[in-house]
Structure formats: C-alpha cells, structure tokens
Design goal:
The complex is a heterotrimer of chains A (about 280), B (about 290) and C (about 290). With about 280 residues, chain A is α/β, with parallel strands linked by helices. Chain A is built from eleven helices and ten strands. Classes of the chains: A alpha/beta (about 280), B mainly alpha (about 290), C alpha/beta (about 290). Chains in contact: A-B, A-C, B-C.
Amino acid sequence: MPDPLVEVRGVTFAYPLPGGGRTIALTDVSLGVREGEWLAVIGHNGSGKSTLAKLFNGLLIPGRGEVIVAGMSTRDLSLHREIRQVVGVVFQDPEDQIVATLVEEDIAFGPENLGLPREEVRRRVEASIEAVEVGELRLRPPHQLSGGQKQRVAIAGVLAMRPRCIVLDESTAMLDPEGRREVLGVTRRLHAAGTTVVLVTHFMSEAVLAERVVVLAEGKVALDGSPREVFAQRERLRELDLDVPPVTAVALRGRAAGVAIRGLPLTVDEFVSALP
Amino acid sequence: MDEFDFARSVTVGQYVPGTSVLHRLDPRAKLAAFVIVLAAIITSDSYIGNVVGLSAALGLVALAGIPVGYVLSGVRPIVPILVVFTVFNFLFLGNYDPTGSAVLWRQPVALGPYEFNFTVTESSMKQTVQGVVRIIALIVLTSTLTLTTTITGLAKGIETLLAPFRRVKVPGHEAAMVIAIAYRFVPTVADELERLMKAQASRGADFGRPGRLRFVKRARQMIPITVPLFVGAFRRAERLIMAMESRCYIGGKGRTPITLPALGRRDWTAIASAAVFTLAVWNVPWPL
Amino acid sequence: MSEKVVEIQDLWHWYLRGTPLQTVALQGAELEIQSDDLAAIMGHTGSGKSSLIQHLNGILRPHRGTVRVFGNDLADPKLDVRPLRRMVGLVFQQPEMQLFDPTVGDDVAFGPRQLGGTPEEVRRRVRTAMERVGLSFEGFKDRYTFGLSGGEMRRVALAGVLALEPRLLVLDEPTAGLDPRGRRQLLESLRTIHAEGEMAVVIVSHDMDVVAELARRVWVLAGGRTVMRGSVREIFARVEELRELGLGIPQVSELAYELRRAGRDVRADVLTADELAEALWTNSTSPAA
C-alpha cells in the first residue's frame, strides 16, 4: 500500500478571535488522501472543511499535528514552493482568484512565479487552456466572463502549476447550475486523467461523484467511507443536520417498506435500474 | 431616469483601441517620452513656454486620433478644485514672495481682530497661472498615455524600465503589479458600487440631488456606500492574497522576466523628438 | 381576500441604453403578484430576472410596457418612487455586503430612521424585524456587525429591509452561498414572514430545490420573456420544457419523470422525497416506516 499523497496526522487548528481567545476549527483530525483518489469532504459552515482545505497547501499551519504532502511537512516554510506545486487550491469566489487583466496572462501567473523559461510558460498555458476549454476566452478581461467561466480559468491557472492534487474549496457554491455543471465536468476529466481531487462541498449531489466521502462535524471526522457506505447512514447524517440525496431517501423508505431494491441508488439512473 | 446606469462613465482614461502612431509605439518609448515632455511642462518658467507645453500635449491627443473634447472631459471633475486653488493663490501667494518682484495689486482686509492683505505680485501671478496650465497639461498628457497603451503594455513597460534598478531595491515589478491589479478590478468594483447604491436606495437611503455643495452632509450620506466598499475591498484583498500565494507568488524575485521586443526606429525617434522638444522649451528665450 | 398588487405586461428594458454597449435585458416580460402570493421567478443568468424585480421598487423604470405596483404606474416620469420603496422591500444578492453600521441594531434601524419615525417606533420596527429573522433583539442589537458569521450577517441585512414593514418582499437568490442548515433556517423564516407579516413574498432563484420547497406559484423567464407560469407542481411536471430551457429540476421531479418513462405508473407532480415514496410504496405489503 503506497503512502498517501497527502496525510493529515492528528491535526488541531484554532483561529484567534479579535479581542482575545480562540475558536477551535479542527480537533485531532487524521485522514489520508491516496494518489488518484477523488475525495469529497462535506460538512456545514463551521465544520472545519475550509480550514482543512487551506491546511493542505500550507496556507494554514496546524497548531498541533502535521500535514505531510508527498513526504514534505507543511511546517517547513522553505518547502512551501514545492508543496504548492503538488497541491493546488481553487477557492470559492470566482472573482478574487484572477489577478491579471487577460485570461491567458492570468493562467501564466503561476508558472511565471516559478521563474520558468518563457517557452515552458507558453507550453503550460496552452495545455491548461485546452484542459478546461477556454480557448475562445483567452484574450478576454475577467469581468466579461460568467461565474462558471471564471472558475474554469481559476482551475486552469492552478493546472499550469502541474499539481498532482487539486483541492476545490466550495468552488461551485457561488455558481448557477450551468456553471456548476461546467466545473464538475472539468473536474471529472481531470480525475479521469489521473489527478487526485479533493472536493470540499456542502452539496450532497456533488459528493456522490466521489470515490470516498468524509463528513466533518464540529471540527472532527464523523463519517469516512464510500458514498454508498456514508449515505446508507441516514439517521446519523440527520443527527448532524445533513441529509442524503433525495433519490436515496426515497430508496431508503422503500427498503424500510420491504421493497427489494438492489444496492443503494445515489442517482436517478441508479434508482430506475435498481427497482425490481 | 436610469439613475444607476454609470458603467459608461468608467471608460474615461481607459484604453481606446486604434492604429495611430502613438498606439504603435513601444510602451517603454512612450513612458520615457512622457517623463521627458513632463519635465518641459513642469519646469519651464515662462508663460509662453507653458502654453507651448500644453499645446504640444493637445497636439499629441490629435496625433493619437482621439477627440480632444473627450480628453478635456477628464479635466471637468477637477474644475472646482482648480477654481479654489486659483482663487486662493491669486489672493494670498503674493504675501510670500521671496523674489521681491513688483507688486501689481494690494488690498488690505480687516476681519474683526484679524488684518491681512490680498496681494498679487508679478511672481505670484505667474505661479498661479502656470499652476493651472501645468495641471491641465499633466492630465492631458497622462490621458494620452493611458488611452493609447493597454494596461498590460504599461505594466510591462514600467517593469522592464525599472528592472535594472532592482539591485538598489527599486520595486519595479511590485509597482507594475499593483497598477495592473488595481486596473483589473475597476470594472468589478464599479459593478459592486452600482449594486450597493441600488441596495441602499431600496432601504430608503437618499443620496441627495447632485450639484448641492453641502459637502459634509453629502459625505455622511455616502457612509452606507463607502464603508461597505472599503470592507469589501479588504476582504477581496485577503482572498486575492491567498490565491496568489497558492500559486507561489512571492514578489518579483525569481520571476520569469518580462520580455518585450527590441525598440525600433520609430520608438527611438519618439524619444529623441521628446528630448529635442524639451531642450528647445528650456533654451529658447521666450519673451514672456 | 387577495388582490393583485403587481401587474407587469409587455415590459421592455435595455441596459446602457443609448451607448454603443446597449443590450436588451427584457423583451416583453410579464408578471402578476397577488397580495398573499408566495412565488418564485426562475431562469438562467441573463434571462432578465434581476432586471425584472428591480422594476418592482422603481430602481429601474420601464422603457416600454406597463408596470403597476400597488396602483402606481412606474412608466409615469412624475412618479415619486420613494414611498414605493417602503411598500416593496427588495433584498439583493449577498445582502450581507451592504451592512455598514458597526452596531447590528443601528444598521437594522437605518431604514426606519430614514422613514422618520419616533425613537419608540423605530425601536419597535427593529425589534419585530430582528425577531422575525430569528435574531433575538436583546442578544444581537449591540453586537459588532462585522464580527458575525455570514449567515447571521445575511439575517441582519434581511431584517434591515423587513424593518420598513413592506407589503411585498422580494429576494434575489436568498439562499446563495448558504449551507443546508442556513438554507433551511432562511426558508423557515420566509414562511413565517409570509404568514405572520401578511406580505407577499417573491424569490428569484436558480436553485430548483429551494423553489420546490418554498414557492406556490412559479414564473419562468428566458431571453427576457416570461415563458412559463403556473403552480409549482404544474411547472416542475413539465420536465421536457424545462430541460430544453437549460434549467434544472428538483431531483425528485426528475426521478418521477424517468420512472414514468420506464413504464411505472406514478404521479408526475411530486415535489418531495416523502411524496414520491408514498406514491411508489403505498401498495407494498409491509407498513411504511
């Protein structure tokens, strides 16, 4: 069993409050992300999920415990440059990630920061533009783009760093359904091509796309398993003020009524084929 | 009736695509020429010299193929300030004339226990008039620069020109980055401003009729706009920093250098013309 | 006894009219709101829904067509819109961004103070508004506005509009960015406001599940026009049309539709998981859980 690409070991993190005191965001959290895996982290605002996302690339350093990325500890500030080429993070606000005045210049921002030769920068920009399909937008200024387009540009900017793992920190929360489809479509393609994906979200419908789901509640890991394993525990989820996808809820009611439903459907298609 | 429709006013001073000689110059040449001509305008000590400077600036506008009226409309917002500046200087500057030039007009004034003079000397008159001409010329010249150069061009030009001074700690890259980021967010902030004004108006906020001069009251009425804008700006900056750091931004050190194509004959001609112009303005013995 | 409070017919509006960047935002939109309505306006980004609701309190004026709100004709250039802004409370997207007073109570009081009430009157309005959104008056009135959580700040902003005691409350994407818990709390508040406040409530939303949960009547906009209107059940049963418009549907409606296509006999107009489960399993031999 190879080492996980990203390992969170016994991490505790607290934010200082204005006026003294601290609020604890994560308490003794441990989990590992394997290379090539698609992990979904779900939880409420305040569950610590965004804090976790920022710990993955060293934007935050744990108070206690370690975060190890490809063998490097995020406590070592001199390694942050390397770490951020392994783990890239796409944030929630589509507007405030784009720095340059033109799309293709913004995608070049990352590689330029690494001091790569011009030719290499150009190569990476082209590859990223193709991966997220923003070719016709390359000379546009960011304010002319839709939310979904902006997030795809943000993803391209992160891809240009050639990371092994992409963390999407609630990247669809501010998008309309079409934008969300665009971003999830790109994510699927990236994962199929071998990129490790960590999707932090509070949409259950997004969590079902993952291979593994971790539920955070009040700074601790409450559930960890495949989507089917996690969503089978409806009672536990309801205790945490969460719920299962609607189709799964219907299926669970059916099961309880004695109907022979094959497996646990998580999507509409699965449900239709699961009925006797 | 469309009281909130002001996206159109955000275009003043921004790049207007074109094919004029000025548009096609390298940004470094334009920046260098800009600084040189500016020197002429700011330091010339004759009335005619200053007017020549202003005319040259307006001539450049025409050369760029931009309507002169459009550029001068950028001066309109500061006319009130100019008027105040002119009136105050006109009335009081003469009291502090170190050159001892001839007094053209003096009027003693008594306000209660205070006594002072309105004084106009030859020297103070010249300074007042020159001040106004210089400010207008500066605005026209700067507009010509920003109207004919893309922000990317300007940023790259500034960064390349200041690059050699890196070893004496001149932050050329950082300056260029700040300008580029500020520019990039202008339309975004304009949208936010529009939304904010609509939202506060929906709560019954009244921003007063335009044109009234009750500055203090107006400033207070704008608090529901200015505070959220600033808070929003800080939050935005925080998020931007996180995104930039996540892509390994640490300032200019170690970044891929910006490359611009070599300066061509046209560019050197522009710089040389600016130098010739400035030397002429300095050395011609203007009668006035 | 309900009466029509909003009547919009053949509404046209251009953005940046008279400039080279002119685009049409609305081309013949329609809308009708009754005084006891709990309605939703759905549509893509760019369908014109935000432009439509901004006509309701006079932020935008019609360029062509009729807009009548509480008997006021918005096309009349002599109309003073300020009284209208007390009757129609418009809450924009991410309203927490418009908070400016460091004290919660004072920010909520901004609107009432602009109306010019006595201090007691202002206090009463602020108290009622805050309680309605689930913020205890005593507990929150002296809190530091910018120290609250995002969800709390949103409720403060909502209270600020409620404090005007409007008869029509319009909210643009009220649940955008909220987590499931925050969403549930907000929708509950809106239901309470509708019932107790005796006001019509209209939301604009692209979240189908929110519309299915809250609204009774739905208006669908596309390309600046009203293309569908009806009760929420009727609208979500028309899956094909909604798909063609590129709009999503609540997962439950989609499931019912696909089951019918696969030959199952189940109601088309279900909205919740429980309803669908009832429809499917009521004939089973074991009692439902």
